[in-house]
Amino acid sequence: MLIKLAIAPLFLPALASLCLPGTCFASAQIPRERVHGNMNKVDEDPSALYQQLMSLQSSLKARSVEMSLIDVVQKGIENNTGLAAAFSTIQEYEWQLIAAKRKWMPTMNLINGQPFAGYQWTTFVQNRYGAKGKRGGKSQENQSEFDEIPIGPGTPIFQSYKGQQFQNLPGATVSWNFILPTRQSDINAASESLKQQKLLFDVSARNLILNMQQAYFSLQRSQLLIESFRDIYDINKQELELLEAQKSIGMATVYDVEQTRSQLFTQLSQLVRYSQNYIQQAAQLAKLLALPPGSIVIPSEPASIYWSWDQTMESTIAKGIDQREEIMASLAAAQSARWSGISMIRSYLPVFQLVGSGNYNFSDGYTNVPVQSDPGESYTWNSAWTTTAGIGFTWSIFDGGINAARAQALYSKSRGLKAKAAEETFDVVKQIETSYGQMLTSRIAISSARQAYHSAQKAQKAARARFAVGVGNITSVVQSIQLLSTASQQVAEAMLSYNNAVAELYRYSATWPGIAESEVRQRMKSMRDMRSEATTHFDFE
Q: In the CATH hierarchy, which top-level class contains the domain 8-79+185-335+406-532?
């Protein structure tokens, strides 16, 4: 955990107890009144605090890996888990496109009776209530079919029959929708969605590269500031030692000594803040590179003007509008929604299909045997094949207008996505104009800050020399060192601003820096090869 401290005397207990993976600093025994007592009391040795800070930085460097910016970009593209998630989304939409294309394939279903194979028991009861007046003769009313059955005085009016059969009733149907109005529109919608996801993968890769570059440049800035303020701290420490020696012989006042001491602690606090930023930025870069826990990456290259951008703003804007994946992804999503709406409307058209079916019926047992009788010779088995083939159709004529309403919703979504693409075009223009202007002004700022730094160096040397011979005063020395501190910060900030601006121009114009594009394609290939070991891969490039 990083702890920001307002004053240097509070830094020791926090820093002394800070533990990093593999390194831990023992906490010193500090009286409670030093922390919570009189805030005007200064009894800390700045050298001891400085040495603890340097020890922390040394331990951090010992477990760090130095990498160039090119190596950082390559490692990040190779390891970053965000790209793996984006590629999984691509494969999800690839399989959705495969599913849409497979609507061209015929379908086959196996069907069965109830059950597919098993026994059937039946009991049939017949009440010949119409034959009650026919015993011993014929009724005077119209004769029925029962008149042909002689019913004597002993014939029961109620008759019961039983049956038992083993049945096997398998069947199969094959159909092919040779005219399916929604098929091609579904394929087109899935294809546009896949195109959108591939474009968004490139967006993720470009954002990752920009984030890694900016994290690397921020680390370089912090590294430069730490080195600059180390030098400034050494200068102030020398002045403080000189003043303390002069004070002991009456040549310097308490004001002179404490003014310099205050500036020394202020610069130490700035060093602490820059060290905190350095650790935080190194951890962020390690996250982007998906390094193992406890691993830290630090720059192997000093802060400098890393690259340049030689295209005009007009050509950069034109390139960005033409190539930005965000714009093309929104347009692809709009097309996908449009095709989905067309599919909804086409669902009202008839579907024509070739249909074939086959059924087999096997039974073994007896039927229609009086309940009181033995089946005897009534046992039989029967088998029959039934086959049909021809053309059929289904037609959903009216569904209450549900699909029509869904189609209009999808058309509205398509129009909204097209409007989003237009809005993103204006965003591209704004981003490029801002970054281009930042690049141009940062060039001027770098030259100005460097000149200010050189002048501040000369000024502090002159002020110290004048004070050493008794001509100047300590206030001039303090002010000149403060100017040197400010100039150091301005140089670091100007170089960071310039490098970030150029990196943003690469990002906002959809231009791959260096070999980044080949690294991204290689990562895609390796992820595809790894996953194709378990599943069949269908390429839709």
A: mainly alpha
